[in-house]
Amino acid sequence: MDISGKVAIVTGGAQGIGRAVTECLLKKGARGVTIADVHEQKGQETVNEFSQQYDNERVTFMYADVTLKSQMEDVFRKTKTTFGRVDIFICNAGICNEYEWERMVDINFTSTIRNTYLAVEYMGTKNGGNGGVIIINSSTAGLTQFPVLPVYSAAKSGLVGFARSVAVRQIIDTKCSVRIGILAGYSSLFSSIGFLLDIYVYEHLTCQ
Ligand SMILES: NC(=O)c1ccc[n+]([C@@H]2O[C@H](COP(=O)([O-])OP(=O)(O)OC[C@H]3O[C@@H](n4cnc5c(N)ncnc54)[C@H](O)[C@@H]3O)[C@@H](O)[C@H]2O)c1
């Protein structure tokens, strides 16, 4: 996809993968990127840094909790007002906390579905948008069993099922010109720790 002149929204773009994706979009010539995140301080720092490195006018931060529809609607509305359009939605915000599993399902799974449909509403040609691309950030934990993170794995698996199903159905693509893709990455550090924890769990819990 040719990124030049395109406008993107990146959830969870204050740090980590979302921050890296934001930088990549700016490097490839995106006209504008809105970072939507709950980490206000990090978000502002990232925007300040990228504004100096790239162009002041091309990157902006908005405080937004992905679980709150009204705040995400605001993000789409303001991005359209500021940059004139929305072409790319990177649905990346996520947490990994089995102790707060209900909130994790809400952030990683439920909100991703709600915000994908919201993005189709704002980007789709059916409602006067230009069409575009939605990328959902899943995980390799969504493709295979992950005993130490059962709910994380379930939420990420759910995203794979969702993205595959809407992609096959092609209703969104045909009627709205919005394509949906899914990422399933992993960090080697994370998987090494996960692997060691798996061994620990098997040795200390399942064998008792
Ligand atoms: N790091 C990994 O190894 C890895 C591997 C595969 C998939 N992922 C997925 O990639 C995505 C990003 O992971 P990361 O490692 O960059 O994490 P990170 O913790 O570095 O960044 C996540 C960002 O999401 C934001 N966020 C959290 N809850 C939010 C909410 N309710 N509303 C808005 N923003 C919120 C955080 O403030 C943070 O800036 C996640 O969905 C994660 O599950 C990560």
From TrEMBL:
<dbReference type="InterPro" id="IPR036291">
    <property type="entry name" value="NAD(P)-bd_dom_sf"/>
</dbReference>
<keyword id="KW-0560">Oxidoreductase</keyword>
<comment type="similarity">
    <text>Belongs to the short-chain dehydrogenases/reductases (SDR) family.</text>
</comment>
<comment type="function">
    <text>Catalyzes the NAD-dependent dehydrogenation (oxidation) of a broad array of hydroxylated polyunsaturated fatty acids (mainly eicosanoids and docosanoids, including prostaglandins, lipoxins and resolvins), yielding their corresponding keto (oxo) metabolites. Decreases the levels of the pro-proliferative prostaglandins such as prostaglandin E2 (whose activity is increased in cancer because of an increase in the expression of cyclooxygenase 2) and generates oxo-fatty acid products that can profoundly influence cell function by abrogating pro-inflammatory cytokine expression.</text>
</comment>
<dbReference type="InterPro" id="IPR020904">
    <property type="entry name" value="Sc_DH/Rdtase_CS"/>
</dbReference>
<dbReference type="InterPro" id="IPR002347">
    <property type="entry name" value="SDR_fam"/>
</dbReference>
<dbReference type="Pfam" id="PF00106">
    <property type="entry name" value="adh_short"/>
</dbReference>
<protein>
    <recommendedName>
        <fullName>15-hydroxyprostaglandin dehydrogenase [NAD(+)]</fullName>
        <ecNumber>1.1.1.141</ecNumber>
        <ecNumber>1.1.1.232</ecNumber>
    </recommendedName>
</protein>
